[in-house]
Amino acid sequence: LCYLKGIGVTKDEQTGLHWLQVAANSGNSDAMANLGIFFIIQGNKSEGMKWLNKAQEKGNDKAKQLLQQLQ
Questions:
Q1: Helix, strand or coil for residue 6?
Q2: pLDDT recorded at residue 12
């Protein structure tokens, strides 16, 4: 998230997305939820919903709340 938001580093969306995907693919549910949010903000709702659902399946409360709001 630091690269995506430019927190403590120069903002670099490509690098931020890369590391977010690495974390999500390794099973980190917070990264999955954040990746879902990222894709939804970028206009790719289907990909975003996919990641939010994966995060929810791992018990991520933020993803569960977001999915309830989006449906």
A1: coil
A2: 77
pLDDT for 63: 97
Tokens encoding 36 = 């879902």
Nearest to 57 by CA among 26, 20, 25, 27: 27
What does the DSSP 8-state code read for residue 45?
Answer: H
Q: What pLDDT score was predicted for residue 50?
A: 97
What are phi and psi for residue 65, nearest 5 degrees?
-65, -45
Place of tokens 């949010």: 37
Q: How far apart are CA 22 and CA 67, in angstroms?
A: 22
pTM above 0.85, yes or no: yes
